[in-house]
Amino acid sequence: MAVSNEMTDVIAEQVADCIAEREIPAINELLSGAPVPAFSRLFQHMLHSAERVDVITTNYDRLLEVQAARVGIGVDSMFYGHTVGKFDPVRSRQAMLRAENQTGRGRFASMKVIPHVRLSKPHGSLDWFTFNNEHFRSDLTIPGSRRIVAPGGNKYRLGYEVPFDQQREQANRAIDSASALLFVGYGFNDDHLQTHIANRIQQVPSVVLSRTITPNARRYLSTSPSAYGIEGHILDTQHTRVTRGEYEISIDRPIWDLNCLLEEVLGK
Known about the structure:
Layout: H1 5-32, H2 38-46, E1 52-56, H3 63-70, E2 74-76, E3 79-80, E4 85-87, H4 89-94, E5 97-104, E6 107-113, E7 116-120, E8 124-131, E9 134-137, E10 145-148, H5 155-158, H6 164-177, E11 181-184, H7 191-200, E12 206-210, H8 215-221, E13 227-232, E14 240-244, E15 247-251, H9 258-266
Parallel strand pairs: 1-7, 2-7, 11-12, 12-13
Antiparallel strand pairs: 3-4, 4-9, 5-6, 8-9, 8-10, 13-14, 14-15
Helix pairs in contact: 1-3, 2-3, 2-9, 6-7
């Protein structure tokens, strides 16, 4: 059932406040913990051989941005600016470029892409606001409506409003052009992304990593001959169940946990 715009704003504010309260200790742990966080290490590894990594999250929190910042990796979020950033996809993209090969008199012959994360958040973010029909990103409490697509009857419609629409379109382009797919804790329940995922997962190597793989995710896995499901063993979280098509093996390491998987793959 659709609700009024006023009620939508109230719901979004309440959801955002609830998540933000739990986000603070998580951010503190990511920034102060001795081990480098899992996604920080994953981004570093992937950017050794690529100038950009496309990351899509349907969560509202800022934990991925924090993990990129922990290791000095830039993020193209479609917002440009610091204390208060404005929705400006062009300038956000340009901020990931660096001038090179100076030819004299302050002129540069070329621009080089700084290795970075291109982040798509089709459901919005806790730090996005709309005020006077303009869209901003800030960690400050600024005036305006929270821009998150909260659960409810308006979820599908809101996904086609600014800035969600451009975030969704970027996410879908990234899926369509991906050479491989990694899903971490994703339940395969988002209508805005599913058609593109359904097509691409059949064409490229894919891994679905989760404590427990959902029935929806399992259906997608069944359509691809090169997709692996990696999940915790039902009776023992220190073991992992790995499936590919009709084949299944058990591993006596909890590699369904991203930290453990990276230790196995990267050796650290």
